[in-house]
């Protein structure tokens, strides 16, 4: 795989043509304003916060709490929520393994663009397969992919069931539902784990958001 670029050879601007996947003879165009300049403008560093977990584990709730907490600190974020992206960009994808992989790949690529724009991109998607999440991690500079695992037992997610999907899955009306008759592979080495508290007092979404914010602060993402 060749990355196309422009080179100055003997005073002449020569294009280097590349073939990427099915795209042939393409050229990479550099932007006139670079990532560092955008980050300076925003006073933050672009990154991807990848929230993974079962349906009902609290991904979207955390994404919203986090986005709000960042906004109150004058930090710009943007949420890519699995459910929402499937209303548009990924509306042609089903829940079979290959389509879930393509769903995650596209969201990973879009998240990478947001991070390059200097934005703190929050992806909240089940992303059940480790290799698909790892492929998204590999798209970004080391350290810029922050995997957050919503470590909530299936039994709790199922008891919440805000959309009634577990009920339908148990009744056999939805096939291939994650956690019921489709796999979920928990992360082995993620940056942040948010664990359900066995004493039945879960951390509040705001407390969870603060845990993630502490990580961002510690790693220097909240300054240029
Ligand atoms: N079969 C099956 N399995 C899992 N989830 C299902 C399924 N069918 C529909 N839904 C609804 O789709 C939401 C998950 O979409 P994602 O794009 O995050 O899924 S994935 O990452 O491609 O696995 C998920 O949203 P959340 O509950 O917010 O996780 C469900 O509402
Ligand atoms: N930290 C939490 N403690 C208790 N309930 C929560 C928490 N986070 C989310 N919930 C509730 O759990 C349900 C599922 O949350 P949601 O964010 O939609 O999960 P997901 O996006 O993973 O499907 C909702 O009814 C929500 O109010």
From TrEMBL:
Q: What is its EC number?
A: 2.7.1.25
Family annotation (HAMAP family): Adenylyl_sulf_kinase (MF_00065)
Q: Does the keyword ATP-binding apply?
A: yes
Residues folding into a coiled coil are none
**Species of provenance:** Rubroshorea leprosula
The cross-references to InterPro entries, in alphabetical order and at most eight, read:
APS, APS_kinase_dom, P-loop_NTPase
The metabolic or biological pathway listed in the UniProt record of this protein is:
Sulfur metabolism; hydrogen sulfide biosynthesis; sulfite from sulfate: step 2/3
Q: Which UniProt keywords apply?
A: Amino-acid biosynthesis, ATP-binding, Cysteine biosynthesis, Kinase, Nucleotide-binding, Transferase
Q: Does the keyword Glycoprotein apply?
A: no
Q: What is the lineage of its organism?
A: Eukaryota, Viridiplantae, Streptophyta, Embryophyta, Tracheophyta
Q: What Pfam families does this protein map onto?
A: APS_kinase (PF01583)
Protein name in the entry: Adenylyl-sulfate kinase
